[in-house]
Amino acid sequence: MTLSLTALPTPQFNQAKPGFQLGAQDVHVHCLDIRQFTATHYAEAEHIMSASERERAQKFIRGKESHIASRWLVRKMLANYLNLAPAAVEFLRTDKGKPYLPQRELQFSLSHSGHWTLLAVSKVELIGVDIEAARSARDLLSIAESYYHPCEFAQLQPLAGAAQDDYFYRLWTLKEAFFKAIGTGISAGLEKIAFDLAGGAIQAQIAPALGEDSDQWQFHQWTLGAQDYCSLACKHPHPLHVNWFDALSAPAFP
Predict the structure, then answer these.
(1) What is the pLDDT averaged over residues 90-104?
(2) Is residue 111 part of a domain?
(3) pTM above 0.90?
(4) What is the spatial distance between Cα 42 and Cα 67, in angstroms, rounded to a whole number?
(5) 3-state DSSP call for residue 234?
(6) Residue 250, CA atoms < 13 Å, CB-side half-sphere
(7) 30: closest CA among 68, 67, 81?
(8) pLDDT tens column, 140-189
(9) Other CB atoms closer than 10 Å to residue 51's CB: what's the count?
(10) CATH number of the structural domain spanning residue 191
(11) Rounded to an integer, what distance in angstroms lies between the CA atom of residue 196 and that of residue 176?
(12) Which of 39, 44, 157, 170 is the most buried (most CB within 10 A)?
């Protein structure tokens, strides 16, 4: 039987200004369309970035603009939650390289692909967000055969064309979001979490080696365009309230 998937929803952006206050079950996703990032924004980003961030930006041969815009997004938005000036936001890293804030009660995850950059912010225990702009030139079936769980490959293999691309990227972003959340990166093994998306629900089975209980996790997916896939992974036992905001409409820090 051919796998049948329901269409992914597009985010409904909250038209109100974000209050930068989070309840225990809130997730805020701040979305930046880099095509709307102006020279004024780039100048502000250069001003609020740390010296090491500016130095790293200069090393980019490609993607420098996206990197600078991402640093603007994470500093500007987190500053509002922390009641700090953007330049004063401090980042630490785990031994696996995952960035985190000294204020550990606030969790965040950053992702960018194509002309989109996303920042998810919450107080949940673990959170990960991923966005991927689909690239049709890739041999997706071979990638899935090598790295996905055999059950996922079995569902993917009978699909063709756009349906196969769609299913591949749904799985890919879910996996990326999960491994970002736990802080290991995908080197821990993409096959160690298997998703079943039949019927519109997102069911996950996590390998015991990762030390995570599948029942404690929830996953959400959207599409920002015909080929822009976004997934959110959160470790939280209760339903979460996810609100999307346009980052360029957020109030400036005084």
Answers:
(1) 92
(2) no
(3) yes
(4) 11
(5) strand
(6) 27
(7) 81
(8) 999 999 999 999 999 999 998 899 999 999 999 999 999 999 999 898 99
(9) 7
(10) 3.90.470.20
(11) 16
(12) 170
Report yes or no: 221 and 174 within 8 Å, Cβ to Cβ: yes
Q: CA torsion sign, 207 to 208 to 214 to 218?
A: negative
- Would you say residue 5 lies in a domain? no
Query: Is 167 domain-assigned?
Result: yes
Give the total number of structural domains in the chain.
1
Q: How many CA atoms lie within 13 A of 182 on its CB side?
A: 23
Handedness of CA 190, 191, 194, 195 (dihedral sign): positive
Other beta carbons less than 10 A from residue 16's beta carbon: 9
Q: Is 116 within the bounds of a domain?
A: no
Tokens matching residue 96: 């696996």
CB 109 within 8 A of CB 176: no
Q: Which domain holds residue 131?
A: 125-235
Which of 237, 204, 233, 248 is CA-nearest to residue 27? 233
- Cβ contact 190:175 at 8 Å: yes
The Cα–Cα gap between 194 and 182 comes to: 15
pLDDT at 254 over 50: no
Decide if pLDDT at 225 tops 70. Answer: yes
Residue 246 carries which side chain, given as an amino acid letter?
D
In the predicted model, what is the mean pLDDT of residues 50-76?
92
